[in-house]
Specification:
Number of domains: 1
Strand order of the largest sheet: 1-2-3-4-7
Number of strands: 7
Helix content: 10-25%
Distance between the termini: 25 Å
Oligomer: single chain
Strand content: 15-25%
Length: 150
């Protein structure tokens, strides 16, 4: 995770890769990704999901934390889904503010941070991002190019 105006290297880390999934598991992964990538209009969503699906074998899923649905134990969870066309990070922290949703209390993992980015079209250091931060964004991009100027 990087501050506004800074670049991100979108490292995939280690974990389970899409090539190791069955067809049904790949569909489940795409369904999870659609929770983030599907927030745009239908055409943008369809384009994004098609690109993500085309590179799904190169996508890495990393998980840390509990593997059972018992939010009263453990230190919360975090996962990332990272590939050529997708970067999702999710972290539910233990011991912070919770919620009660339909009788299920999330008192243990109620404080959530999440982000979705497209590494092929990232906003970090873009002209729009520079304008939004008053030019306070940072330095150079991972490809070595200078930060854009208006």
């Amino acid at each position: 995770m990087y501050a506004p105006g800074n670049t991100c290297d979108f490292s995939t880390g280690t974990g389970l890769t899409g090539v190791d999934l069955t067809g049904e598991q790949k569909q489940l992964l795409l369904d999870v990704i659609a929770n983030w990538a599907g927030m745009a209009d239908e055409e943008t969503t369809a384009t994004a999901l098609a690109a993500i699906e085309a590179a799904l074998d190169e996508t890495v899923i990393a998980w840390s934390g509990e593997t059972t649905y018992d939010m009263s134990i453990g230190d919360g969870i975090s996962f990332s889904i990272s590939g050529p066309n997708v970067y999702i990070a999710f972290e539910a922290q233990q011991g912070l503010a919770g919620a009660d949703v339909d009788g299920v209390t999330t008192s243990g993992w109620g404080h959530v941070h999440t982000i979705y980015r497209d590494p092929t079209n990232d906003y970090a250091d873009s002209v729009t991002q520079q304008a939004a931060t008053g030019g306070m964004g940072g330095g150079t991009r991972p490809d070595g190019a200078s930060a854009p100027t208006n």
